[in-house]
Every structure is written in C-alpha cells, then in structure tokens.
Amino acid sequence: MDRKLDKRQQELLDILPNIRRFALSLAGNVADADDLLQSTVERLLTRGLPDDADVLPWSLKVCRNLWIDEVRSRKVRREASEEPAVVGEQSYCGEQQVLGELTLEEVQGVLAGMPDEQCAVLELVAVEGYSYKEAASVLEIPIGTVMSRLARARTALIERSKLLDAPVH
Amino acid sequence: MEQTELDDDTLLSAYLDGELTDDEADGITERLAREPALMRRLEAMQSVDTATRQAFEKLDEQPMPAAVLDMLGASASKTSATVVPFPQRIVRNFAQLPVALAASVALVAGFLVSNVLREAPTDPYGITPAGLVAAGSDLHELLEHGISAEPQAFADGATGELLLTFEDKAGDWCRHLVVDGGEHGVQGVACRRDGSWQIEALSYGRGMDAGGPFRQASGTTPAAVDSAIGALIGPRDPLGTDEEKALISDTWEKSEK
Fold first, then answer.
1. Under DSSP, is residue B61 helix (H, G, I), strand (E, B) or coil?
2. pTM of structure
C-alpha cells in the first residue's frame, strides 16, 4: 500500500460519518444508506480523486451520482417486472414525529415522506452546515433551487409535525 | 436576492441560514418584531432544524459497516469510539434574531437556537450585538469569576450558573453557561478571546418557572449548545473545581502548550 493511498484512506475515514449522513438523506433508511456508503467508498478508492479536489464535497457528489444511478436502475427493474411503484424511488426525510428523543427506528420513520432532493438539501445545510453555494455545488443545482427546496423541506416538516397548531396570538 | 419574488417561508428559511442580504435580513427582522405569526413560523423552522440534527445524530451512534472499514484498513474497534462533532453553522448564524423577541415567546421544543441582531435591543444579560459579553454585566462577572456549579444571583432576579470550563482547540478557555430568568432563560458557550468573553453559541428557551428543561442536570442541554461544545473542545479534559479556581486567580492565563 503506497503512502498516497494511506493518506487518502485516512481522509475518507475521517469523513465517513458525513458521507453516511448524506447517504441516509438520499436513501431514507440505514440499510440502503450503508450500501450507498460502501459503493461510494469503493468508487472513491478505485477511481481516485483529482489531486486538487476537496475530498468531502467530491465524495458527496460521487455519493449522489451513485444514488441517482441506483434510483434509475430500480426504476428499470420495476418497469421490467411491471411492479407498481413503491417506496425507494424517492428517499425520505421528515414525518410526524419531529421533536423529542428518537430511537433509530423512529428516525427512519422521521425520514419518511419527503422527496430525496429536499431531504438532501436539508441535510447539507441544517446538519452539515453547508452554505447555499456549497450545497448547490454538491447537488449541481442553482443556488435559487437550494433556497426553494430548503424552504419547502422545512415547511413540509412543520406541517407534518403540527408545530404551528397552537393559535397565534 | 429579489425579496419581492420570494414567499415568506423562503425568506424565513434563508434568514435562518444567514443567506439574505443585510437589507433583506433587516426587513425580516423588522417584520418579526411586528408579526407574532411570522416569529412563530421562524421558531418552528428552527425546531425542525434542531430535530433534524438530532435525528441524524442517531445514525452516528450506529457502528460503521465493517465492510466499509475493511476497505479503508480500519477496524471497527478502533473507530467505534471516535467522536465526530457535527459541523455547525452556529457561529456563522449567530447574529439574526432579536434577543428580546426570541426570549419572549414560549417555544415548542423548549429551546430556540437563536442569535443576536446586528441592531439588537438591549439584552438583559449584557450580550452586545457583536456577541461579546459586556464588561461589568452580571454575566461577565459570572464568566470571569464564577466557579462551576455555584449559582450566582443576577441583579434582575435571574440566576446564572456555570456548568463546565474547558480549553478549546485554539487554546482559549471556554465556559458552558446557563441563566435562568424564571419565565425565560438561556444556555450557551462563551470563550475568553483576547481578554473578552465571546459568545460562541446561545439557545433561548423557557425558564424553570415556565416548565422549561433548562438545567444540564435534567439532561437537556440544547442540541446546539451540545454540538458547539463538541466542535470547540480541545484534547484536554474539562477543568475540575480546583483547576478553575487556580485559573481564575491567574486571570485566565493560557496554559503552556
């Protein structure tokens, strides 16, 4: 194992939790997220990164592209088998139980009900602390789209969590 | 950004993230002061963000897949104890909400990750718009001379208490503080930088009289404060009481590296 590979492995090891959280925002459940994480790390190790690439944003882009490929292949498989559309083509973020202490099982419930593109934006900005510009770069969408998706994600979660049921004074 | 083309939710969302221009943010701030419904909407968005972070934190508690660790030449036992603090925008977003407004509303989640306005109203705890704790204020006295777990009475009837003193990665001293004002209160982290106490993170919430889960003893440190401590803290253990006393008598000399 050469020195460069060692360094790259350590860099990836350091950002594994970030990639995994992002994968969860796309996949919507831990099992699929971990599969996606594995595919992402595999791809990064086999194909490498450009020398000037910032390792985390680049890794997240790879993760996202692999997820898009996965969604497409699932769609093809589903169409070939003529099965009805089910969950999986969209990943999920946000359900009724938004507040309080959650178990992991409940978290997976929380991650149900939101289109993956909204969930991914929310994860990057609200969890990872990305700016809109940084999130736009990872997701390869305009900043204005980041802004609108984020607002829709938060609004949807508010509606589901009934946070505003109390009358406004 | 063209504010006229954006609906309120989009504006509030961008305001929350510090992504509006100064003029746009000022416009929202003024509206928040006049429109309780808008303020409640903003609080709800903040609660959603807090809950989302908590939800994703649950994933970090799960061990990494062994196959992934194998690919990277790491063993599960080596990595399972690794604490990975969340990157937070707490500092970047520190200056947004009017303090008095933020503290004047009952909060759904018990806490409101909040900020100090550029043109903030006078803050009862002496926090300036730049996030500095004003010298001579009760909070400054607490931070400068207080010992952890020894509550101090403030002039306005609130009670201030320090919960933790630690050295951050830059070698500056930081303290986890809580001020219980009865109906309202704050928890936060302040670090002593160049002789001044700088607020690094602050959460507003209900005080004990209002049923708020405000003390650390209740196990409810706001996620934002918890995350800030995790992001700031250096490799050394937090200080014990005797170490705190020695540090205070040395007027917060930095430790030898």
1. coil
2. 0.57
What mean pLDDT comes out for the span B176-182? 82
Question: Residue B29 — φ and ψ, nearest 5°?
Answer: -60, -45
Q: Is there a contact between B43 and B107 (Cβ–Cβ < 8 Å)? A: yes
- Per the CB < 8 A criterion, the answer to whether B132 and B199 are in contact is yes
**Bridge partners, B179 (sequence order):** B160, B186
CB-nearest to A154 from B45, B67, B89 is: B45
Q: Which residues contact A79 (CB under 8 A, 6 or more apart)?
A: none
Strand (E) or helix (H) holding B108: none
Q: Quick check: B41 and A126 CB within 8 A?
A: no
pLDDT category, B42, cuts 50, 70, 90? confident
Pick the closest to residue A12 from A35, A43, A41 (CA basis).
A41
Q: Residue B80: helix, strand or coil by DSSP? A: coil
| Residue B105 near chain A (CB below 8 Å) | no
Interface test with B, best of A1, A11, A16, A40 (most B CBs within 10 A): A16
User: Given A161, A166, A168, which is nearest B48 (Cβ)?
Assistant: A161
Residues 118-137, chain A, touching B (beta carbon < 8 A) = 122-123, 125-129, 131-132
* Calpha distance A93→A107 (Å, rounded): 9
3-class SS at B176? strand
Which residues, 6 or more positions from B130, have their beta carbon under 8 angstroms from its beta carbon?
A: B95
Percent of chain B with pLDDT strictly greater than 90: 19
d(CA B128, CA B57): 32
C-alpha triplet B213, A17, A115: angle, nearest 5°: 80
DSSP B4: G
Non-local (6+) Cβ contacts of B93 within 8 A are: B16, B17, B18, B115
Closest alpha carbon to A47 in A66, A22, A32: A66
Tens of pLDDT, residues A24-56: 888 888 888 999 999 999 999 998 888 888 899
Q: How confident is the model at residue B100 (pLDDT cuts 50, 70, 90)?
A: very low
